[in-house]
C-alpha cells in the first residue's frame, strides 16, 4: 500500500525519460530506422507518463525532487515497524493455535498408542477367555458322561468356579476400561478447561494485539505527521525566505520606481509651471483685446438704441394718425352700413311689393274675367240676377302687412327722416306712409320726446363717440346718439321704443293733470285704429294732425332722468325672462300669404262650379239639338234647290221644240206642276 | 380521518405554545397521551410515530417550550412552524399508512419515494416489500431492528441481501423436521430467490421425539444406537430450497446442534446417509455454487465420496471445505479425483484423518493440476511419505500458492525435498510446516532452499524443532521477499501478478 517504494525504479525511469530527447534518435533524422526508433521511444515515454499519473500524483511531485525526504524516511520506518508488529502479533496469536495443534498431535499419538495397547490387551484377553471358555465347554461334555451326582456336583462346582473366574476376568477388564473411561472423562474436562483457557488467552492476546496495533498505528501516524509537519515547516521557512528575498527585491525595485516617479513628477511640475506662466500672459493679452472689442460694441449699441428711439417716436406718431383715421373710417363705415342696410331692405321691399302687385294684378284680372263669365252666365243664360261676391282679399292691394317689427334705430331714422320731410311737404297728407308706428302717438311727439331724451341723457353716450360726432350734421348726430342711448338702456325692439314713448306720455299724464285730457283723447283713438288699418290710416291721420300734438314741453327736462330710471327698472323685469337676443331684421311673416293666395283661387265657390258643370252639359245637349237642326235645314235647302233645278230642267224640256214635233206631247200625258 | 389525526397534534401545539415555560416533561406526557389516544381511535396506530409533525419531533428535547416560540432555528433543517402539513405530506402519510394493502412506490417521483421509504415500518410483510423495495436504507433498518449484530460485509455489501440471508438462516436454524411446516421456508423462496447468495447454517435441529429416549449413562452405546435410529434423525432436506435460489453461490453447513448443554446426546450430531444423499443431489443441481463448506459434521469416507461424486465436473465450484470431519484416505482419494474433474481453487481437508496414501493420491492429482491455489491438510497424518509425494508434485505444479501441512508428523526427508522445491518453485507464497518434527538439519536445508527463493512470503516453522538461527535467517529472507513483492505490486512493469504480493498476510488458520 505504500507507494514510495517504487521510487528507485521511478528515478531510473525519469533519468531515462530525461535522457531520451538529448541523446536518443531524432524524428528529423534522415535514417528511417532511426525515425521509427524515435517514435517508439516517444510512445513509450508517453505511456510511462500516463502510467505514472495513474499511480498517483504524489509520486512525481515533491519526492522526485528530494529523493529521500524526512517524511519518506519516517514513512518507510513506520511501515516496516508496523509490518513487523503485525507479523509478531499474528504470530503471537497463532502461537496458541499452533500449541493446541501440537498438543492435539501428541494426544493423538498417545491415544493411538494407548488404543493399540488396549486392543492388544483386549485381543489377549479374548484369547485367554476363549481358551477358558473352551475348557469350560469341554468340561460340559465331560460332565454329561458323569453319572454319579457327587461327581457331577463337584464338576458343576468346578465349572461354576471356572465361569466365575471367567466372569471375574471380564469384569476386571470392564472395570479397567471404565476406569480408563473415567480418566478420559477427567482428561476431557481438563482439556475443555484448557481449551477455554486457551480461548480466553487467545481473546486476550487478540485484544491486546488490537490495542497494541492501534496504539502503534497512532504513534506512527503521529510520527509521520510530525515528520510531515517538520518537512512542511522547513518548506515553509524556505519559501518564506525566498518570499522575503523576492519581497525585498520587489521593495527595492519599488523604491527605485518611486524615486523615478518623484523625479518625473518634479520635471512635469516645472514644465507645468512654465506652461502656466505662458498661458497667463497669453490670457491677459487676449483679455485686453476682447475688452476693447466689448467697448466698441457697446458704443455701437448706444448708437443703435438712439436710432431705435427715433424710429419708435416716428412710428408712434404714425400710429396715432392711423388710429384717428381708423376711427373716422369706423364712423363712416357704420353710417354707410346703416344706409346700405336700409337701402337694401327698401329695395327688397320694393321688389317684393312690385312682384306681389304684378301677381296680384294678374290674379285679379283672372278673377274679374271669371266674374264676368259668371255674370254673363247668370244674366244671359240663366236669367238670374248676379251679385258680385265681396271678399276682403279682393280689396287687398300689395303684400299683407302685419305689425312689422322694426329696430328702434330704423324707427328713429324714419321718425327723423319724416320730420325732415315734414317741413317740406307737410307729410301728414301722404296716405301711404309706411311709418306706421305712431298709432297712438304722432311722429312729431315721438320725435320730440326722442330729441329730449337725446339731449338729456347725453351721459349715456361715450365721450369718444361724442367727439367723433361733432363734425357730423345734426340729424345724423341725433341718430347715432340715440342709438348709443338705446343700447345703453337696453331697448332693442320696436315695442321697447313704443313702451318708452308711452312711458313718457303716461308719466307726463300722471304728473301733469292738464295734459290728461289729451292723452285720454289719444287712447280711444288707439282702440279704433287696429281694425281698419289701411282704410283707417287716412281717416286717422286727419284728426291727429288737426289736434295739436302733445307738446314735449310738458315734460320737464329734469324729469327725463327720473322717467328713464323708472322705465329701466320697469323694463328690466319683463326683460329678464325674455329671449336674450332678438334679430334686428324682422323676418316677414308669410303665414297669411299662402292663405291669401289660396283664397284668391277659390273666389268662385264650389256651388257655382257645380252649377257651371250642369249648365255645360245642358248646353252641350242643346248644342247637339241645334246642330242636328242646322243639318236638317241644310238638307232641306239643298233638296229645295234640287227641286228648283229639276223644275227648270223640266220646263226646259217642255219648252223645247222637239215636244211639238212629237205626236203626243208630254204635256198632254201628264199634268205639269205649276209653281 | 385526516382531521382526527391532525387535531390532536394541533391541540398539543396550541396548548404548549400557551404554556411556554419549561414544561417539556408535561408536554411529552401530553403527547404520549395524545399519541395513545390517536392509536386507540385511529385505524393506523403507527402513523403518529411514523411522521411526527415538526413540533412533536422536538417534544422531548430540552427547552422545547422556548423553541416553539421561534419561527426559524438555523441549526435545525427540519424545524418548521407550519401547522397544516403540505398536501404531498398528507399523501405520503396516507401511502405509508396503507402500504400493506396498496403499495405505491414506483409511481412516485424519487424524492417522495425516499420519504415514503423513510417512514415505512420494517415490520411490513415480506410479501409486500421483498420484490418492491430496493432501497438499502430500508433494509438496513430491517436488519438493525431484527439483529443487533450483523455485518453487511459478509453478505456482499448489500443490506437487502443481508436481510434475506440472515432471515433464511434463522429459519433454517430453527427448522424442526416433521414439526415445522416446510411451507414456511418454501413460501419465502419466491421472495428471496433473487437476493440470497449465501446460506450459512451452523446448526440443523433433529426431529423431536415426544417421549425422549433416555439412554442412561452409557454414552458409549449411543453411537451404535444412532446408527439404528438413523432414518428418524434426518435433518431438513435442502434440495428444494437450493434448487429455488437462482443466485446461490455459497453453502456453509454444519450438521450439529449448538448450545445443547446438558441435553447432549450423540444422535444430535448425526449426518445421516439420507442427509448426505439429498445434500449431494442439491449441490449437484445447483450450478451457480462456488463455495461449498461442510464442516464439523462427522463426514466419513463414504459420505465424502458421495458428496464428492456429485461434485465431479461441477461447472462453478471453486472452493471445497470439508475440514474437521472424519475423512480418511478414501475420501482424500475422491478429493484427488475431484481435482482432476473440476476447476477447484481451494481445497480444505484440515483436521481429518488423511494418511500417507491419501496424501499420495492428492499429490498425484496436484502434479498435473493448474487450478488449485490453496491446499490445506492441517492436522492430518500424512507423514513423510505423503509429504515427499506432495513435494515431488510441487516440483511440477505451477499454480499452488498456499500449502498448509501443519501437524502432519513430517520430518527431515520432507524438508529436504521441500528445500529443493523452494529453489525451483516461483508460485508458492505461503507454506506452513508448523507442529512437525523437522529437526535442526531439516531447518538448515530449508534455509538453503530459501536462499534461492524470491517469491515465498510466509513460511511457518513454529514448533518444528528447527534451530532458532535458521528460523531467524529464514525470517530475514521472507522479509526481503516481502519487500520485493511490495515493490513489484507498486510497479506493474513486472510481469508478476500483484494479487499475491499484497504485503503481509495472516497465516491461514
TrEMBL record, chain A:
Protein name: Dynein regulatory complex protein 1
Biased composition (Basic and acidic residues): 526-545
Subunit note: Component of the nexin-dynein regulatory complex (N-DRC). Interacts with CCDC65/DRC2, DRC3, GAS8/DRC4 and TCTE1/DRC5.
Annotated stretches, region: Disordered: 1-34, 513-556
Gene that this sequence comes from: DRC1
Similarity comment text for this entry: Belongs to the DRC1 family.
Biased composition (Polar residues): 513-522
Intracellular or extracellular location(s): Cytoplasm, Cytoskeleton, Flagellum axoneme
From TrEMBL, chain B:
Bias (Low complexity) ranges: 16-34, 56-66
Broad class of the protein's primary localization: cytoplasm
The keyword Flavoprotein belongs to this UniProt entry's keyword annotation: no
Record region (Disordered): 1-66, 210-231, 490-509
Keyword Ribosomal protein set for record: no
SMART domains: LRR_RI
Keywords assigned by UniProt, alphabetized: Cytoplasm, Cytoskeleton
One GO BP: microtubule-based movement
Compartments where found: Cytoplasm, Cytoskeleton
Feature: compositional bias, Polar residues: 1-15
Top-level lineage group: Eukaryota
PANTHER family: DYNEIN REGULATORY COMPLEX SUBUNIT 5, YNEIN REGULATORY COMPLEX SUBUNIT 5
Protein name: Dynein regulatory complex subunit 5
Amino acid at each position: 500500500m505504500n507507494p514510495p517504494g517504487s521510487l528507485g525504479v521511478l528515478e531510473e525511469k525519469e533519468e531515462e525519460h530525461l535522457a531520451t530527447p538529448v541523446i536518443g534518435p531524432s524524428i528529423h533524422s534522415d535514417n528511417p530506422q532511426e525515425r521509427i526508433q524515435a517514435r517508439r521511444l516517444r510512445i513509450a515515454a508517453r505511456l510511462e507518463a500516463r502510467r505514472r499519473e495513474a499511480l498517483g500524483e504524489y509520486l512525481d511531485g515533491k519526492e522526485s525532487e528530494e529523493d529521500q525526504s524526512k517524511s519518506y524516511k519516517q514513512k518507510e520506518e513506520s511501515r516496516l515497524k508496523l509490518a513487523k508488529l503485525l507479523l509478531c502479533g499474528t504470530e503471537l496469536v497463532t502461537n496458541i493455535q499452533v500449541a493446541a495443534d501440537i498438543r492435539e498431535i501428541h494426544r493423538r499419538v498417545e491415544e493411538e498408542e494407548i488404543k493399540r495397547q488396549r486392543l492388544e490387551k483386549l485381543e489377549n484377553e479374548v484369547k485367554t477367555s476363549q481358551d477358558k471358555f473352551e475348557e469350560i465347554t469341554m468340561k460340559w461334555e465331560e460332565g454329561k458322561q458323569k453319572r454319579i451326582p457327587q461327581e457331577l456336583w463337584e464338576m458343576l462346582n468346578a465349572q461354576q468356579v471356572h465361569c466365575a473366574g471367567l466372569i471375574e476376568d471380564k469384569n476386571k477388564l470392564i472395570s479397567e476400561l471404565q476406569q480408563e473411561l473415567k480418566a478420559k472423562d477427567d482428561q476431557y474436562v481438563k482439556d475443555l478447561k484448557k481449551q477455554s483457557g486457551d480461548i480466553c488467552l487467545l481473546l486476550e492476546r487478540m485484544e491486546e494485539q488490537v490495542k497494541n496495533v492501534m496504539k502503534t498505528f497512532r504513534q506512527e501516524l503521529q510520527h509521520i505527521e510530525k515528520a510531515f509537519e517538520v518537512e512542511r515547516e522547513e518548506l515553509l521557512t524556505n519559501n518564506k525566505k525566498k518570499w522575503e528575498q523576492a519581497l525585498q527585491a520587489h521593495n527595492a525595485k519599488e523604491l527605485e520606481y518611486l524615486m523615478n516617479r518623484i523625479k518625473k513628477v518634479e520635471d512635469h511640475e516645472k514644465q507645468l509651471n512654465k506652461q502656466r506662466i505662458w498661458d497667463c500672459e497669453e490670457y491677459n493679452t487676449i483679455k485686453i483685446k476682447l475688452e476693447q472689442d466689448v467697448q466698441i460694441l457697446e458704443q455701437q449699441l448706444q448708437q443703435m438704441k438712439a436710432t431705435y428711439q427715433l424710429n419708435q417716436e416716428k412710428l408712434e406718431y404714425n400710429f396715432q394718425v392711423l388710429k384717428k383715421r381708423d376711427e373716422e373710417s369706423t364712423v363712416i363705415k357704420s353710417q354707410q352700413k346703416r344706409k346700405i342696410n336700409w337701402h337694401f331692405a327698401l329695395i327688397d321691399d320694393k321688389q317684393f311689393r312690385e312682384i306681389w302687385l304684378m301677381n296680384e294684378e294678374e290674379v285679379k284680372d283672372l278673377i274679374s274675367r271669371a266674374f264676368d263669365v259668371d255674370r254673363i252666365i247668370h244674366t244671359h243664360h240663366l236669367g238670374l240676377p248676379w251679385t258680385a261676391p265681396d271678399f276682403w282679399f279682393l280689396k287687398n292691394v300689395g303684400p299683407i302687412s302685419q305689425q312689422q317689427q322694426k329696430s328702434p334705430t330704423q324707427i328713429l331714422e324714419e321718425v327723423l327722416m319724416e320730420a325732415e320731410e315734414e317741413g317740406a311737404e307737410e307729410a301728414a297728407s301722404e296716405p301711404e306712409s309706411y311709418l306706421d308706428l305712431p298709432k297712438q302717438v304722432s311722429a312729431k311727439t315721438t320725435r320730440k320726446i326722442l330729441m329730449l331724451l337725446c339731449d338729456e341723457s347725453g351721459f349715456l353716450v361715450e365721450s369718444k363717440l361724442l367727439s367723433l360726432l361733432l363734425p357730423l350734421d345734426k340729424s345724423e348726430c341725433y341718430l347715432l346718439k340715440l342709438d348709443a342711448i338705446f343700447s345703453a338702456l337696453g331697448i332693442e325692439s320696436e315695442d321697447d321704443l313704443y313702451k318708452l314713448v308711452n312711458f313718457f306720455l303716461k308719466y307726463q299724464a300722471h304728473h301733469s293733470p292738464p295734459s290728461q285730457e289729451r292723452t285720454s283723447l289719444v287712447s280711444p283713438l288707439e282702440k279704433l285704429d287696429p281694425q281698419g288699418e289701411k282704410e283707417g290710416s287716412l281717416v286717422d291721420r286727419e284728426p291727429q294732425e288737426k289736434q295739436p300734438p302733445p307738446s314735449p314741453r310738458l315734460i320737464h327736462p329734469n324729469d327725463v332722468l327720473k322717467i328713464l330710471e323708472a322705465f329701466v327698472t320697469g323694463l328690466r323685469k319683463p326683460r329678464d325672462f325674455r329671449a336674450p337676443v332678438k334679430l334686428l331684421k324682422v323676418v316677414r311673416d308669410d303665414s297669411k300669404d299662402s292663405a291669401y293666395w289660396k283664397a284668391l283661387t277659390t273666389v268662385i265657390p264650389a256651388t257655382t262650379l257645380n252649377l257651371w258643370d250642369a249648365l255645360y252639359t245642358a248646353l252641350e245637349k242643346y248644342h247637339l239639338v241645334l246642330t242636328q237642326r242646322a243639318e236638317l235645314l241644310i238638307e232641306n235647302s239643298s233638296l229645295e234647290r234640287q227641286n228648283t233645278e229639276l223644275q227648270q230642267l223640266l220646263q226646259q224640256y217642255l219648252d223645247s221644240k222637239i215636244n211639238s214635233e212629237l205626236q203626243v206631247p208630254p204635256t198632254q200625258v201628264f199634268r205639269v206642276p205649276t209653281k | 380521518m385526516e382531521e382526527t389525526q391532525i387535531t390532536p397534534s394541533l391541540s398539543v401545539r396550541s396548548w404548549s405554545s400557551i404554556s411556554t415555560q419549561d414544561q417539556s416533561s408535561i408536554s411529552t406526557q401530553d403527547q404520549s397521551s395524545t399519541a395513545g389516544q390517536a392509536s386507540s381511535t385511529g385505524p393506523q396506530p403507527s402513523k403518529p410515530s411514523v411522521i411526527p409533525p415538526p413540533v412533536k419531533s422536538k417534544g422531548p428535547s430540552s427547552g422545547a417550550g422556548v423553541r416553539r416560540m421561534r419561527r426559524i432555528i438555523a441549526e435545525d433543517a427540519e424545524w418548521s412552524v407550519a401547522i397544516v402539513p403540505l398536501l404531498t405530506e398528507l399523501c405520503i402519510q396516507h401511502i405509508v399508512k396503507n402500504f400493506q394493502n396498496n403499495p405505491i412506490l414506483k409511481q412516485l417521483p424519487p424524492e417522495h419515494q425516499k420519504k415514503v421509504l423513510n417512514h415505512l415500518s420494517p415490520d411490513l410483510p415480506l410479501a409486500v416489500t421483498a420484490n418492491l423495495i430496493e432501497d438499502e436504507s430500508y433494509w438496513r433498518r430491517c436488519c438493525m431492528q431484527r439483529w443487533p449484530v450483523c455485518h453487511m460485509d459478509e453478505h456482499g455489501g448489500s443490506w437487502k441481501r443481508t436481510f434475506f440471508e440472515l432471515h433464511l438462516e434463522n429459519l433454517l436454524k430453527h427448522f424442526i423436521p416433521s414439526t415445522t411446516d416446510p411451507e414456511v421456508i418454501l413460501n419465502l423462496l419466491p421472495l428471496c430467490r433473487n437476493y440470497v447468495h449465501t446460506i450459512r447454517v451452523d446448526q440443523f435441529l433433529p426431529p423431536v421425539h415426544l417421549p425422549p429416549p433416555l439412554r442412561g449413562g452409557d454414552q458409549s452405546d449411543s453411537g451404535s444406537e444412532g446408527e439404528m435410529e438413523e432414518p428418524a434423525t434426518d435433518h431438513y432436506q435442502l434440495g428444494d430450497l437450493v434448487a429455488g435460489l437462482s443466485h446461490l453461490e455459497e453453502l456453509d453447513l454444519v450438521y450439529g446442534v449448538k448450545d445443547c448443554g446438558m441435553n447432549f446426546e450423540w444422535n444430535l450430531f448425526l449426518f445421516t446417509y439420507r442427509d448426505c444423499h439429498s445434500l449431494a443431489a442439491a449441490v449437484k443441481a445447483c450450478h451457480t455454487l462456488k463455495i461449498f463448506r461442510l464442516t464439523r459434521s462427522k463426514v466419513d469416507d463414504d459420505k465424502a465420496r458421495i458428496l464428492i461424486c456429485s461434485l465431479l465436473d461441477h461447472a462453478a465450484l471453486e472452493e471445497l471445505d470439508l475440514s474437521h470431519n472424519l475423512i480418511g484416505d478414501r475420501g482424500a482419494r475422491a478429493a484427488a479425483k475431484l481435482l482432476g474433474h473440476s476447476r477447484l481453487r481451494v481445497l480444505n481437508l484440515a483436521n481429518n484423518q488423511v494418511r500417507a496414501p491419501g496424501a499420495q493420491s492428492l499429490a498425484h492429482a496436484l502434479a498435473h493440476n493448474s487450478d488449485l491455489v490453496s491446499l490445506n491438510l492441517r492436522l492430518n497424518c500424512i507423514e513423510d511419505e505423503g509429504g515427499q509425494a506432495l513435494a515431488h508434485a510441487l516440483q511440477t505444479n505451477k499454480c499452488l500458492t498456499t500449502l498448509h501441512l501443519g501437524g502432519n508428523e513430517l520430518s527431515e526427508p520432507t524438508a529436504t525435498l521441500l528445500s529443493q522445491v523452494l529453489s525451483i518453485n516461483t508460485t508458492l507464497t505461503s507454506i506452513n510446516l508448523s507442529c512437525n518434527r523437522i529437526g535442526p538439519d531439516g531447518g538448515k536445508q530449508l534455509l538453503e532452499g530459501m536462499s534461492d527463493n524470491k517469491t515465498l512470503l510466509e513460511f511457518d516453522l513454529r514448533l518444528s524443532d528447527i534451530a532458532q538461527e535458521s528460523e531467524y535467517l529464514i525470517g530475514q529472507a521472507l522479509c526481503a521477499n516481502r519487500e520485493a513483492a511490495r515493490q513489484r505490486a507498486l510497479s506493474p512493469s513486472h510481469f508478476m501478478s500483484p494479487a499475491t504480493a499484497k504485503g503481509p498476510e495472516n497465516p491461514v488458520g
